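Q: what sequence does this backbone want?
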């Protein structure tokens, strides 16, 4: 697959570790402060950064993934946040993870769910093709769960081909998954996890973490460098 990777702009936060394109703009979450900003994608300032439309504080911690669906933001609280900032009572437990459903206007947590199987996670994706479900990754088992939101039950599980799964994009015929350490984005069959396609993200391009569909391609963020980059297919 012929692709083009280019830097778009630096995120308003030093460690952007999840993002989601919506009709309102680009949502980006910071792993350190756990704040979320809605950015205007059309123009950047003379400093090469986009305009911040709105910003909210959340009760997430060590946030390592984000999606949008059902009128809510969904954040992965990947353990407690004291590595980066003072601990908060709302932090996830050490060695565990929670999935937070968050009001995008106020930042209030409307629901908090445990990660199926426990351990850590870097990825969550709302299923816009099957409303009422989210896809959640687990780092401990390197699998991807389809979870029914109403009772938080695992409906289906597929294996991931590499470790350190991160951002995801659900399409009608598969799901794209970032594997950050391997610098690849793979398209997997929804039934059995069979590898259908892959995109290499070699150095010196920004390292892929969060992922969202954008203009027929993808946009991703790099928590290491702070860049937001675009992949044109």
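A:
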């Amino acid at each position: 697959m012929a692709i083009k990777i280019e830097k778009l702009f630096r995120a308003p936060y030093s460690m952007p570790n999840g993002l989601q394109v919506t009709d309102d703009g680009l949502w980006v979450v910071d792993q350190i402060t756990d704040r979320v900003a809605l950015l205007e994608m059309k123009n950047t300032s003379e400093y090469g950064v986009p305009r911040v439309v709105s910003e909210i504080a959340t009760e997430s911690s060590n946030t390592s993934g984000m999606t949008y669906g059902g009128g809510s933001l969904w954040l992965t609280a990947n353990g407690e946040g004291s590595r980066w900032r003072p601990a908060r009572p709302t932090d996830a437990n050490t060695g565990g993870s929670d999935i937070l459903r968050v009001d995008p206007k106020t930042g209030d947590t409307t629901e908090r769910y445990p990660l199926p199987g426990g351990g850590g996670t870097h990825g969550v994706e709302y299923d816009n093709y099957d409303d009422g479900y989210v896809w959640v990754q687990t780092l401990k088992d390197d699998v991807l769960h389809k979870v029914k939101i109403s009772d938080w039950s695992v409906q289906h599980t597929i294996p991931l081909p590499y470790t350190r799964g991160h951002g995801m994009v659900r399409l009608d015929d598969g799901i794209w998954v970032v594997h950050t350490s391997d610098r690849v984005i793979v398209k997997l069959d929804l039934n059995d996890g069979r590898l259908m396609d892959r995109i290499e993200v070699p150095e010196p391009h920004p390292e892929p973490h969060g992922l969202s569909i954008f203009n027929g391609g993808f946009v991703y963020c790099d928590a290491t460098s702070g860049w937001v980059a675009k992949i044109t297919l």
